[in-house]
Structure formats: C-alpha cells, structure tokens
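Tokens in:
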C-alpha cells in the first residue's frame, strides 16, 4: 500500500499530487475529485499563492471540476490526520511543521491528541458525510475494533452452571427444596449444597466472530502501515475466516437477534460496529471507500489544548475564583466569569442580544508572587515575525481589536479586585523546542486608553501536547509575560 506524508495548507500542483499518489494524471483525477468531494482538499487559484489560507475568501476557493493538465489551480489539504483512499495512505501533518519531511513521531503524538480530544464522543464515525454522498469510513471501524479489544478484551457471553458443593454462590431455595436434610437438635444440616457458577462460553458464536473481525482489522491496518502510527500492536486471535460463520445475511441476522438481548452499552456498540463492517465489507483499496481519521478544524483542537494547559477559568463561578481580595458586593457568586461580559442592548426593544464577545480563555493565577489576570487567544497560525520584515501569516485586525476589547470588558472587575496586573497574549504553535518571545502587537489609539498591548508567544507544540495528554498545567512564569 502506498503511504505518503502531506502538509496541511501547503500548495501542491497537480503534477505533485500525481507524484504523491504514485499514478498518472488520468488515474489521479478521480482521487482528487473524491478528496475534494469530502472537503479534505481544496482548489486555490494560482493567483492567490501569496495569501495565507486564513485570509482566503470563499470565492478564492474554487469548486471547479478537475481536469487533466490543469495548472491554473493549486491544491491544498485542509485536514490533519490520516486519509485512506484507493490503497493510498495520506498522512496529513499540521501546517506549523515547516522543516519536517516525514514527521512520524510528531504525527503520532498529534493522533494521540486527537484521540483524547474526541474521547467524550461515545460514537464510531462509520460514515463520512459530504454534500453529494456518503462513504463508509472503514478506517474508523478498524481502529475502533482494535482499540476496543485492547481496552475490553474479546466479546464474551456467560452462562450459569448449577454445581453440587461448588465454590460459587449458594442457592438456598434450590438446596432446601431439592436435597436431603439431616436434623440434629432441631437444626437442619445439608450434606449437599446447590451452588451457581458463572462461566464464559469459549465457543460462543459472537466471541469467535469478534476474534475473527479483530484479527482481520489488525491485518488491514498492518498492511496500511498504520499500526505503528496509532501505537498499536498487531493481534492474531484466530485462523477462522468470515465465511466460516455463514453467509452475510445469516451473520447479520444473528447479530440483530443478539442486539435485541444485550443491554450492555459496550456490547451494543461492538455489535453495531461488527454489523456495519460485515454489511458494508469495504476495502482500503476501494476508490469509493474514502476513510478518514482526523479533523478539518485543527484550530479548535489547538484552542482546546491551550484552554486546558493554561487553566481556563471562563466557566468558573465567581465565588470559586482565587481572587486577590474577597468577591466584592454586587457580584453574584454563582455567576460565571464569562457572563460578566456586557451584551449589546438594542434600545428600541429594551432587550439585549444573546451574542457578545467571547474570549478563548482567561487565567487568574499567581506569577512571581503577583495576582495576574491573563487573557489568552489561541491562534493556529504560521506567523512570520522577524525584525525589520513586514509581518505575514499573523492574526488579523479583527483578532487584535477583539483582544483589546476583552480587557476593556473585564476592566471594572479587574479594578474592583485589586489585581497586580493584566496581560494580553496570543498563543501560536511552533515546531521548535523552546518558547519564543515574538514581542507585542500595538495599536496606539487603544494603548492610549490604558489597555495592555498584546504579547505574542510561540509555544512548542510538543510541549503543549505533553501537558494536555498528561493533564498538567503550563508554568506561567516561563511565558515571561
């Protein structure tokens, strides 16, 4: 199976995609169309080559059909994760990895982050939806079967066995009614006790079927060279073939009946996944079976990571916050920090609109023995900020003005509770190993209002991922705000 790395938001020509996909233009066109259909690849006008993807307008991203020899457009992957289509594994790594050619270790950690980010969803994404059709997401099903096996072992059904003088639970009703009783001094004695023992049926149909499917999933992932990327070991539980369990209709019929008798959530999910896999019987070599693991919105993942490691307190009630002084009168202890931001009043209605300013995250913490109120904005950008060079790829004017306004929104609360200082900061990812101080961004007219200029810090993505995965917090002092 062909396995190649591609970088998110890098511009690729049609010829370069053909080289990556290891096929001629005629064979590459259907694959490019499929990738575009599911929103993981976009066509960008060659005239927009200098634009940052974040700055591209909707009309800049073309929806035109793909033609052989097309040189008017560049193709851009807007996805982080793994794409499998027609026997080709495309490993899409994040855009901030500018110098890596085959960043296996980095992508492996990104995948662990994505797994944790999606951990709350009790669902297997069996289908990829698009505006035109849907596709069976075989990769998600294979990964689930193997991950669930490692966490919960094989699917098992138990049965109760009645024993005489066994080691299990004593069945007193059965013992009293069905065994011989000895009486001594008006006290009954039982020479035989009826006991119940619960055993696993090793020959259970669904246990053997699950072992077969897990083994098949392992072999498919190994063939796709994905076991190492997802940090899994291969398993070989059985030599049984799927045909040994009956034809497709019979297997599905048995699973349907089992689903009607199972009320365990995990078992239901396993049965439904097994049903979908057998019903669809897709192949990673099938052009129509495009499989995905990852996200089109890694910016949201970066925001979540920053919120966790910087100890976001926007949703914390005021009465719980560790303030420099006790909460002043007039503030509701149950009100959350985010609810302090004023909402726009439309005077003719006498009512406020629901929408208002929403910061990414706010941290209230002790830094160098001072109480600081820090307003962070997590930005998933590739900013080029060097002395004497016009900035490129930086957060736009909307982000800058909103960041000033966040401080203005909390100004009264900050003054009422005697914070030592207030800080404003953009957080951007970097492939480097040390935090980089990229100065500040300033607008004089807003600085003159007494608002803090916005500091810019490049955070090593690997450091942020390690903190997020381990549940630890960032030491604010190393940011040197």
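Residues out:
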């Amino acid at each position: 199976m062909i396995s190649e790395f591609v970088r998110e938001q890098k511009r690729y020509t049609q010829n370069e995609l053909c080289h990556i996909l290891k096929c001629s233009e005629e064979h590459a066109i259907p694959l490019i169309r499929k990738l575009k259909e599911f929103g993981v690849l976009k066509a960008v006008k060659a005239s927009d080559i200098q634009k940052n993807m974040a700055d591209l307008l909707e009309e800049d991203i073309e929806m035109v059909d793909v033609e052989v020899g097309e040189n008017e457009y560049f193709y851009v992957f807007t996805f982080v994760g793994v794409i499998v289509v027609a026997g080709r594994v495309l490993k899409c790594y994040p855009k901030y990895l500018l110098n890596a050619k085959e960043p296996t270790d980095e992508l492996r950690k990104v995948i662990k982050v994505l797994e944790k980010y999606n951990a709350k969803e009790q669902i297997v994404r069996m289908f990829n939806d698009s505006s035109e059709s849907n596709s069976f997401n075989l990769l998600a099903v294979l990964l689930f079967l193997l991950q669930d096996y490692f966490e919960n072992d094989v699917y098992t059904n138990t049965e109760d066995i009645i024993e005489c003088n066994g080691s299990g639970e004593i069945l007193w009703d059965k013992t009293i009614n069905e065994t011989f009783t000895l009486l001594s001094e008006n006290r009954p004695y039982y020479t035989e006790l009826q006991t119940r023992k619960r055993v696993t049926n090793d020959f259970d149909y669904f246990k053997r079927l699950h072992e077969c499917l897990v083994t098949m999933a392992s072999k498919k992932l190994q063939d796709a060279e994905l076991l190492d990327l997802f940090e899994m070991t291969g398993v070989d539980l059985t030599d049984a073939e799927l045909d040994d369990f009956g034809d497709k209709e019979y297997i599905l019929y048995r699973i349907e009946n089992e689903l009607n008798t199972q009320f365990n959530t995990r078992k239901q999910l396993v049965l439904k996944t097994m049903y979908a896999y057998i019903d669809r019987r897709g192949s990673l070599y099938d052009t129509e079976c495009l499989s995905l693991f990852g996200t089109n919105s890694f910016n949201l993942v970066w925001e979540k990571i920053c919120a966790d490691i910087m100890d976001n307190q926007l949703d914390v009630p005021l009465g719980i916050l560790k303030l420099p002084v006790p909460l002043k009168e007039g503030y509701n202890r149950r009100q959350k920090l985010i609810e302090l931001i004023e909402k726009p009043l439309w005077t003719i209605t006498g009512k406020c609109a629901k929408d208002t300013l929403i910061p990414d995250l706010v941290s209230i913490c002790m830094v160098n023995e001072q109480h600081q109120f820090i307003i962070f904005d997590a930005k998933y950008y590739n900013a080029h900020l060097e002395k004497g060079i016009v900035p490129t790829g930086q957060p736009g004017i909307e982000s800058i003005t909103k960041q000033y306004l966040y401080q203005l929104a909390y100004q009264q609360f900050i003054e009422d509770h005697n914070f030592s200082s207030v800080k404003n900061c953009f957080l951007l990812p970097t492939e480097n190993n040390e935090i980089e101080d990229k100065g500040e961004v300033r607008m004089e007219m807003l600085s003159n209002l007494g608002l803090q200029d916005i500091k810019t810090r490049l955070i090593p993505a690997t450091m942020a991922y390690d903190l997020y995965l381990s549940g630890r917090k960032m030491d604010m002092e190393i940011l040197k705000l």
